[in-house]
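Hey, can you fold this one?
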Amino acid sequence: MIENNFLKLLKDTAKEQSYLGQEKLIPDQLSDLANFVANHLWQTALFLAFLSTILLNFLATIRP
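Sure. Predicted structure:
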């Protein structure tokens, strides 16, 4: 009896794990972007810092 419950629980867990392994949580485009950021972290941080500096300077010039 206990073995049957254990085997049923094991099969159910395996089925859930299989389903979770097949389901995509994020689209491929976002996955590619996330991989790029992970591989080029300091370049991405530098680019975002540069972009935010330009944006803040632009906003400072149009609002005295």
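Residues 12 and 61 are 62 Å apart (CA to CA). Let me know if you want another pass with a different chain boundary.
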